[in-house]
Amino acid sequence: MWRGDGRELSPVGTVNLNGDILLHSSIFPNVHFGFNQRNFVVSTQPVFPFEFQTNTSFEGLCIDLLAQLAVELNFTFEVIVPPDGDFGVMLDNGSWTGLIGQLQRKDVDLVAAPLSITMQRERVMDFIHPFFHDHSEVLIQKPDPQETKWRTLIDPYSDTVIISIGLSLPLASLVLVALENISPVYSGDEREPNGSDLNSFLGSFWYLFGALLTQGGKYTPNAMSSRLFVGMWWLFCIISLATYSGNLIASLTVSKEKLPFKSLKEMVSQERFIWGTFGGTVFVTMFQESVIPEYNAIWRGMVRFNATDPSVLNKNPDQHMQKVLGGNYAYIAAKSEVDTQMTKQCGLATIDEKFLHMQYAFGVPNNSPYTDIFSLKTMKILESGLMNVWERKWWSRQKMCYEATWDQHKVIDLMDVQSAFYLIGIGIVLASLVIGVEWICFRIIRRNSKHQPAELYATDISALPV
Q1: What is the per-residue pLDDT across 389-427, written as a single tens digit (0 to 9) for each?
Q2: Which of 56, 197, 292, 366 is the most buried (most CB within 10 A)?
Q3: Residues 262, 276: Cα–Cα separation, whole Å
Q4: DSSP labels for 235-256?
């Protein structure tokens, strides 16, 4: 029996000389009183909102669950934290650090923390029934929208599409010139030698360029082959412009964030961002031992970054958040932690990909007789709905950032259309350069033709070489 500061024997009856047993109390009275106020040593690792340390005690969802188990199973507990601050990572000699190591050595009776259930951990400890399901996300700082406003006019197309259209225009001009010159429809008088007709490269180029801007041209082809080709070009222009216009209008009238990457594959392929995670946790084990290529690339990146910046595997989540807010850093963490951080900072975002689905459970030493007792009681608590009450308590939405979503219209300001004004400036610069070249060419021709002034001034400026 548990009495005072420890356990001691308690008389429950007598045995006669003839072997008769006379009982005046239950031989196992503790079965009616749970653990009969036994004091459990419970280890935890502060991670908000599951558990965090106040001035005098621990609080959080795991502490609420632990307190409810203590009430229903009639035990007391004292909470400690592992000296190394780890959740648990296996070392080369087979021993474990952190919370898992304490259970492996049986230094504690129970671990009340969001321990992820894995096969490696199951070999050295027992999990009770899981109480929470979670997955991992990548948290980054939202890009500054002002930095890319100058790209408004080219953002509707990818770089590949822009290059393809840019190459199509001169190639199509060459094709049209070839068709116009090869076609037998034209007689020699119908071909103008001044470079303005479609049988010259410049004439064809400006005609097809005007088609891209939904404008006509001064000349139209007479040959059936040229007309078929120009018709196909116009269809190409209609489809391209319709797609471009729709995306441009959408980008100007709605707010939609454009993240630097949207998946783990894109993250490990870029060079701008580095990444890290909570050191000493299941993330380290999963990335290190996984056979998935993206996970292997993530771990290799962490090892590389850790050589110059050890904070990428820091055991303090606040340090990772400071790096995220500093820019160009991606923090790999559980969704529960990410949601909590996003309620505090409105400038954060997550990528679309969800990965590393996990189940959280309390832990007891390997082959513990208490496993079934705790599991059955945990299932009853989950069925009662208390877990939902605690989740609403610790995942408060009162500080959520309510910003305009992607389907809400916004007012277009000067920054949104600044690239259109840039085009005017580019046009002025190019026109100034061209007029300078024209004047240089004009003066060269004039200097070489001083003996024929009448013919010089009769020359059409459009015939000058450019």
Answers
A1: 998 888 865 455 544 444 455 566 666 666 666 767 777
A2: 197
A3: 17
A4: HHHHHHHHHHHHHHHHHHHB--
Q: Report how far residue 74's alpha carbon sits from residue 66's, in angstroms, rounded to the nearest whole number.
A: 11
d(C-alpha 165, C-alpha 371), whole Å: 67
Q: Burial level of 130, CB count in 10 A (0-12/13-18/19+)?
A: buried
CA–CA distance, 35 with 28 (Å, rounded to integer): 11
100 within 8 A of 88, measured Cβ to Cβ: yes
Residue 330 forms beta bridges with which residues?
275
Sort residue 370 into left (φ over 0), alpha (ψ -120 to 50) or beta.
Answer: alpha
In b/e form, how buried is each residue of 357-384, taking b as 16+ CB within 10 angstroms?
ebbbbbbbbeebebbebbbebbeebbee
Q: Which residues of the chain have pLDDT under 70?
A: 1-4, 28-33, 144-151, 186-196, 216, 219, 251-257, 396-421, 423, 450-466
Instruction: Evaluate the omega torsion of the peptide bond into residue 49 and state whether it is cis, within 30 degrees of 0.
Output: yes
Residue 189 tokens read as 């008088």
Question: Cα dihedral angle (308, 314, 316, 317), rounded to 10 degrees?
Answer: 90
Output the six-digit token pair for 83: 């000296």
Residue identified by tokens 């007479």 is 222
* Span between the terminal Cα atoms of the chain, in Å: 106
Dihedral-angle region of residue 106 (phi above 0 means left; psi in -120 to 50 means alpha; beta otherwise): left
pTM (two decimals): 0.63
Residue with the two structure tokens 């009616």: 32
Retrieve residue 435's tokens. Answer: 């007029």
